[in-house]
Amino acid sequence: MNDDPPDQDVPSVPHSQRIAIIGAGTIGLSIAALHIPFGNPITIYDTRPDLHEYIQANLPPLLASSSSTTNPHPSPQLPANLTITTDLASAVHHADIIQESTPELPTLKQSLWARIERLCPASTLLWSSTSGIPASTQSLHLRDPSRLLVVHPYNPPHIMPLVEVVPSPATLPSLVDATLRFWREERGRRPVLVRKEVPGFVANRLAFALLREVVHLVADGVVGVRDVDAVVEASMGPRWAVAGPLRSYAAGGGERGLEGFFEKIGGTVQECWQGQGRMEVGGEWEKCVFREVQEAYGTFGKEDAEERDLITRGVLEAIRVGKWDAERRREELKDLERVTETEHLD
């Protein structure tokens, strides 16, 4: 019997869906690095004049870091299943999936989607990687707005499992189902359906709520920059990687779950909620907090990103193996209970 958890490899047989990635910025290239190892024909479209040279310089390191065995010397050769183009029509005219990752400008996305709709097949899935512009806004100039939905990958997409799927009220349910199925079954990601369009969707709203309180505590002199980061890294970070806040605090309530938790320390929770900072972007706090963060960490560079991705991959792999071990132990205990019950009956 093999006691090792199964490897998380990509399928050996390439999939046939043709994927067009619109926009070769940081997110677009990371999405390309996510899709390319699965063997699909991938086309990257962008209007920059040095597109091929830019992708040649920036994509190989992402492809290397998307692998479970990161190569410190990535191959300079671009993959055979990748096409690069500055012509939108050639990028989308045979695409089965179009994933847009252009700058966060509503008018730009609206005009771009109107052009894409005229050029691509009627059956093509239309996805936007936006971090905040809802599909109902982006689809303003579409003849058929029911085709478009937001597929927001958490950054960096080639590493992080989360994909937020955010339809507009007009999006066809069948397209939502097909999108969730693709990311769950074809890519092994954690797609989450966001039922209503809200600014920032869910992941960013949670992250920004924590960020607001962090800058409040630093600006108010409660804690230093490195120490507040250490608090997150050494407590809720690893805990929430295993079980989210609702599940974690429900566990803290014992048999009565979340209700029991609030019965125990609801007063403290309310006091913290009432005392949280009311920070505004552009406020006076920015000068001191920006300066302190710069003094603490300096400029975030390429080596920092590579280190972050390497450690993040290790964390995600440890969680995967840990959950596999826990599930196996649970099944072993069930088997033992069944054997014990059978022996008692005999």
Characterise the protein shown here:
- With 346 residues, the chain is α/β, with parallel strands linked by helices.
- The chain has 13 helices and 8 strands.
- An 8-stranded mixed β-sheet has the order 3-2-1-4-5-6-7-8.
- β6 (148-153) and β7 form a beta hairpin.
- α7 packs across α12 and α10 packs across α11 (257-275).
Write the layout of secondary structure elements.
Layout (H helix, E strand, L loop, with lengths): L18 E4 L3 H10 L6 E4 L5 H15 L16 E4 L2 H5 L4 E4 L5 H14 L5 E4 L6 H4 L9 E6 L8 E6 L5 H14 L3 E4 L9 H17 L5 H9 L2 H7 L2 H8 L4 H19 L9 H13 L4 H44 L1
Parallel strand pairs: 1-2, 1-4, 2-3, 4-5, 5-6, 7-8
Antiparallel strand pairs: 6-7
Helix pairs in contact: 1-2, 7-12, 10-11
Q: Name the shape in a single word.
A: globular
**What's the Cα radius of gyration?**
23 Å
Strand order of the largest sheet: 3-2-1-4-5-6-7-8
The overall pLDDT average reads 91
Percent in helix: 40-55%
Question: Which sequence of SSEs, written as H and E, runs from N to C?
Answer: EHEHEHEHEHEEHEHHHHHHH
Instruction: List segments where confidence is low: pLDDT < 50 over at least 5 consecutive residues.
Output: 9-14
Count of runs of 4 or more consecutive helical residues: 13
Give the termini distance in whole angstroms. 28 Å
Quote the beta fraction.
5-15%
Structural class: alpha/beta
Number of strand elements: 8
- Report the sheet with the most strands, covering strand number, pairing sense and barrel closure: 8 strands, mixed
